[in-house]
Design goal:
Layout: H1 23-26, H2 30-36, E1 37-39, E2 43-46, E3 50-59, E4 68-76, H3 78-87, E5 99-103, E6 117-121, E7 130-133, H4 139-146, H5 150-157
Length: about 160
Amino acid sequence: MKCSQCGEVHGVDEMELTFQRPDIAAQLTPEERAQRVQGNSDLCVLDGERFFVRAVFPLPVESSERSYNIGLWVEVPQLAFERIYELWDDPNQHLEAPFEARIANDIPTQPESLGLAANLHLTDHKTRPSVFLREASHSLFFEQTSGISKHRAHEYSTVFP
């Protein structure tokens, strides 16, 4: 079905917006990153003091059963990070209460999103955790609770050349 806004067909299965690292780590030079950052594609520690978890930020898409997921990073307190690490391979991790977190990426096409308050929900030992905003006045909160059009999902997918 053609988009009513631009006349193109937008599949929800298009590539989703993904951040490879928290913004603060991505801005470091490769040499600085090698010295100051520990982690893998899911967990990241900066200077032994700041703790990050990779997660998905689901946005419901109108007329679709599948959400559009932004792959982003959140910063969590050290104790939360340690607990998340402890539960990482646990098939029952979804039973854990959500963790307080802060968005660690500035999402293009949005007002400032870096540092927004959120809740991190562990989901399953085979999937990344989910993030849900607590900032009700931010447009991302509105998109997450009300949903987005397929055209909007396409806009997110094409913000980086």
